[in-house]
Structure formats: structure tokens, C-alpha cells
Prior knowledge:
This protein is of the alpha/beta class. It is built from 14 helices and eleven strands. Helix content is 43%, strand content 17%.
Amino acid sequence: MTNFGYTLMTEQSGPRELVNYAIAAENVGFDFEVSSDHYSPWITSQGHSPYAWTVLGAVAQATSRVELATYVTCPTFRYHPAVIAQKSATLQLLAEGRFILGLGSGENLNEHVIGEGWPMVSVRQDMLEEAVTIIRALHSDELVTWEGQYFRVDSARVWDLPDEGVPIALAVSGDDSVKRFAPLGDHLVAVSPEKELVDKWDKAHGGSSRKIGQIPICWGPDKDEAIALAHDQFRWFGGGWNVNADLPTTAGFDAASQFVRPDDIAGSIACGPDLDELAESVKPYLDAGFTDVALVQVGDVLQQRFLDEVAAPLLEKLRAL
């Protein structure tokens, strides 16, 4: 049985709104909730970017059933891995075992703000591997001193640790990252429904793991208006992650997506009032073997109405697939 999740999209909503949406999403029947972790929105029109960890702490107290996860946090630039180890352990305690730490190699958009530059992807992957190793060590109740290629840790211990630990889900995108991170991670995170990727992860991982994906939809009572909303808020999505990882500013994303047409968006994001069409757009993830799929309802303007009127019947259709 596939789990269906709701995305707390920090780039398009303020912190109080996100907590309210989290409560509504649990009440309507979503199985889990994931939060993006950004310093900036993707494009200017989205207009938000509250601190994800504060939001998740509030959500952990405001909900009682849904699982929670970061989708995903970069533990190498804005955050030192020792800090990630501490705050993920704290959040797991607040959530009473409902939290999964999703980690990835990050995007320039969010990490350039500390002024340390943005290295090539191979270096970012090396940094992520070292960071995960440090986080694992600190989650094992050890006193950790570390002198690595990228990070130093001096006599650090995480004093408040959950008995159940903190599962780590790692974002991968190809053969090299699967081979490297499957042995380090508990679960897989991926942004495209590739069955070959899932199969290679299972082989390299060698154990039971979850495969967590995410897909945007844009429900709206009028299809053309929903397409226009998706174009305004989500046209950056079409650039692909090779582009999305490297552009440094919202102005860059605005410029890079200026020639994306509404028809392009309509061809890549299911939009409008047809719940069968919205549900069907998720099917490639199910066919690829994903165990968990989080929905992104694009735009803040229809978010509460989506949760109040649409989410429950849409979840029924998704589970019928």
C-alpha cells in the first residue's frame, strides 16, 4: 500500500499558514507531511521562505498521527552536520518517533547565502557523504571528534537522543549517487519516477527501505486559471535539477523561466478540477515502485480550499489506483 503525503511548501506560504495546513492535512487523512527547507523561494512571485525547522517543531506539537520529514535539508553549507544531528534528534523527540531526516546535496539558491561559494556536484556529493557519517556518529550517543576533508567536530555529543533513532532518507539521482548513498541511507528520496533508479537502490541497499517521491499538482475549479496559477508559481520546475541546483537567486530563476509558456506547464503539471486527471498524474510513481508520494498543491491562494473540499476525495482516488 502506497502512503500519500502533503507538502508543506515553505516557498509559497507563511509559517502560521503552514501549521494550519499541516493540521488540516492530518485531519483529512494524509499519511505523512514533508517540508521543504529553503532560504529563498524559487521565484519572486512565490514570496515566502520561513525557517523550516521552526515550522516543523510547531507542526510536531500540533499533529499526532502523520509522519514528518524534511524534503530535503542540505547538511553541508548553511548547516554544519553537527547542528543537523542535534536538531533532528530534538525534532524526533517532539514528534515522538514520527520524523524522517531527508538529506540532499542542496541548491545554490539556498546555500550561497553564507558566502562560501558553490562547488561542482562531485564535491557536493563528497561533502554530503562526510556529513551523513558525522550525523550517524552523533546519533549513536558517542562523544565525537572529527577531522575530515570538509568538516571538523570537536568533542561533540548530542545529549537528548530518541530511543528509536532518526531514520535518514537520502536524495539520489543516478547510478553514482545510488552506489554511494544506498549503503548510508535508510530510505530513498527521488524527484522523478524512474523504476530503474528504484531497482538499483534496492540492489545496492540490500534491505527494506522506503522510496519517497514528490509531485506537483494544481487543483482549481477552472482549468485555465489553474494553469495560469501553476505558470506563475511553478514555471521554475521545468528547468530540471541540473539547472535548479546551480542558479543562485530568485532573479536568476525568473530570468531562466521567462520563456516557459502556460502550455508547457499544462503539459508537465496536472491542473484543473478533474480529480481523475490529478490522480492519474501520480501513477508513474506507483508504477516505478515508490512507497510514498507527497503531493504539492501549487499556490497558497487555493490551499485551504484544496484541503477542505478536494483532498479527501482525491485521496480516495489515489488509494483506488
